[in-house]
Amino acid sequence: MWSKEKQEKQKEYFREQRTNKTGNFTEFVVRTYYCIYKTCAINNTNYCLVSEVTPYKIKNIIYEGIYGGQPDHDYNNVINNCFTHLENMQYIHYDNSKSREFIFIDKPLDFLLEGEHGYYLKKYNIKNEISLDKENTITMRKAIDKMPLETTSIDCDKCHSGKYALRVGKYGYFYGCSNYPDCKNTKNISDFIYTYLVTNGIKIYEMKTNCWSCGKEISLISYFPEFDFISSNTPFPAYDDWYTVKLGAIPSIDKQIMEKYSNIDTRFSKLAGFSYPVNICPHCNNIQGGKLALSSMHDYLQKELENKNIEKFVIEKMKIYNNSALKEDLKEMVSDLETLHQTIGIF
After folding, report:
1. Res. 239: pLDDT tops 90
2. Is a pLDDT exceeding 90 seen at residue 209?
3. Which three-class secondary structure string do you get for the chain?
4. pTM for the whole thing?
5. Are the CB atoms for 166 and 155 separated by under 8 Å?
6. What is the pLDDT of residues 93-134, one digit of tens each?
7. What is the pLDDT of residues 136-172, one digit of tens each?
């Protein structure tokens, strides 16, 4: 949290920007605040889950009408900087309870011009205002503590009667037995994901599209563990970069997929300086742009998931080989996700 002097100085700057705009950051901060506000208002509370307002989920709202409405490559850092400002200026705060991370709204934006609060409520179709008094926050916090523990379908491999549940501790996320404190068994995130995948397999998704080069219809194929967890009601860490875990992110799984699907192969990228697995057009043999094509596929499937239609894009649930290479791949994957999670510092 910043000193009162620094908070007031930043507030004066934001207030000045409302009348004499010289950049977009102040507007980004305001839009971030109202994204949180709307999510809270839907449930008639002054808090929401961190996972409901990640930069990835709100980026299009934040950038609407700015830079052509297209989030730039650095949107993640930009939006997380907005969260940081809101927290350091005491407009919001973060809190943990069991397996969940929450954002609380603590006070209104007091640097807005007259009438702007009403404008944003209307702009974002917020039907009801939320109560921001301290007694309400205390009441809401007590309600959070009474929420039931979110458990997974994976049995504890020590007591065999409990289920693994996602928890948040001093050092971040982990999975612990639901029979705690009678059973104190735990798994770190990568070990749990390994157990989950070996037990359940991994869903392979297919989306029809047109080749950017020849225009003929092709199939894009990839995995997205994030969607597997959500569709199976398995609680998982709210890392913002889950969307990057797709074809090319887990080498041992990539190898299995390439053995089975002829339209997936490794190609060398001069720009990246290494080879990686990509979807290939079977008609013209051109690669489909691993990052761009699969990011578009992820966004499309995200909407289908919200509409409860994602299962029609699953072409198989691929059995995963039990091997040490996968363990190492998952350890590296989770390390990358956690590094960004901790570096950005909004949780």
Report:
1. no
2. yes
3. CCCHHHHHHHHHHHHHHHHCCCCCHHHHHHHHHHHHHHHHHHCCCCEEEHHHCCHHHHHHHHCCCCHHHCCCCCHHHHHHHHHHHHHHCCCEEEEEECCEEEEEECCCCCCCCCCHHHHHHHHCCCCCCCCCCHHHHHHHHHHHHCCCCCEEEEECCCCCCCEEEEEEECCEEEEEECCCCCCCCEECHHHHHHHHHHHHCEEEEEEEEECCCCCCEEEEEEECHHHHHHHCCCCCCCCHHHHHCCCCCCHHHHHHHHHHCCCEEEEEECCCCEEEEEEECCCCCCECCHHHHHHHHHHHHHHHHHCCCHHHHEEEEECCCCCHHHHHHHHHHHHHHHHHHHHHCCC
4. 0.69
5. no
6. 988 765 577 889 999 999 999 999 999 999 999 988 888 877
7. 666 766 766 666 677 899 999 999 999 999 887 767 7
Length of the chain equals 347
Residue with tokens 């000045």: 16
